[in-house]
């Protein structure tokens, strides 16, 4: 066990050297995400490193890799960096790879799998967010599941305690159902000290309840003395546009054919929703990550492009970092077999310079 920890420490110190070279470059453009920065400046610098991110969704966030989307290929990381994205949000279903009885041990082979993704991302000068995703039991039985949630995070945090600052943790994706806003605040108050015990300087990402909705930020209880936090929210409005034809959404078949073309009325709704988040961020003095936004592939291409471009532009206009959902599955901007970009959608996210 001691040898394994020493080897991990050496691996992450090497990754840290690579990341420090990236941070030197990033500092020149106002995005210094390094442990040398004071907490508030570090959070802001790390948020700027997340400026143009993409989710590697439907890869490691299910019970097994490839169950609901493509296997995560090394080429995905290379192409992401080459395209001009700055970071990866990596949804991970840690609970499916952990025991169901104490000590809730995470499968070492799965840790190695995630380690490989993290190392390759850092080699390509990409920041990476390790996001606890699809923890269904926590949503349905949050009181019963609390101990397991905390123990899983203790393991993840200790495993990556020596990782560079450009490796960030997102505490839980989309709290919902029985994990109400109040219960999520209680769980948050319990898990933050667990992570901070081994990662006192790590930048953490936290969203509100109600599926990480923007309005739920108003009731999110963040500790005032922890300034090394990035707030996150998700945006899929209107659902009839972004989830038309989605097989997992009841009634979504009736939405097929719904269009979006940035009319004055449509844009006003988007503007108002983002202004509300911007006001919260200014009041609370927190940097913001738009952690998910995307339109399902059943929408027609002009609608997907117009909606995606508008959301991206409104996020950037308010200083939000953003992370598109997602790379290469049902919302994807990359064709996973041919490895060809869906160019119009890519350019809606990353306009040609």
Give descriptors for this structure.
353 residues; alpha/beta; TIM Barrel; eight-stranded parallel β-barrel; two-stranded antiparallel ribbon; 44% helix; globular
Question: Can you give a write-up of this model?
Answer:
This protein is of the alpha/beta class and 353 residues long. The chain has one domain: Alpha-Beta Barrel (TIM Barrel), CATH 3.20.20.80. The protein is 44% helix and 12% strand. The protein has an eight-stranded parallel barrel, surrounded by four helices. Strands 9-10 form a two-stranded antiparallel sheet. Strand 5, helix 8 and strand 6 form a beta-alpha-beta unit. Helix 10 runs parallel beside helix 11 and helix 11 packs parallel to helix 12. The longest helix has 27 residues.
- End-to-end Cα distance, whole Å, is 49 Å
Question: What is the CATH topology descriptor?
Answer: TIM Barrel
Query: Rough shape?
Result: globular
Strand order of the largest sheet: 1-2-3-4-5-6-7-8
Q: Can you count the helices?
A: 12
State Rg: 19 Å
Number of domains in the coordinates?
A: 1
Q: What's the β-strand tally?
A: 10
Helix content: 40-55%
Q: Roughly what is the average pLDDT, rounded to an integer?
A: 94
Low-confidence stretches: 21-30
Topology as a string of helices (H) and strands (E): HHEHEHEHHEHEHEHHEHEEEH
CATH superfamily: Glycosidases
CATH architecture: Alpha-Beta Barrel
Structural class: alpha/beta
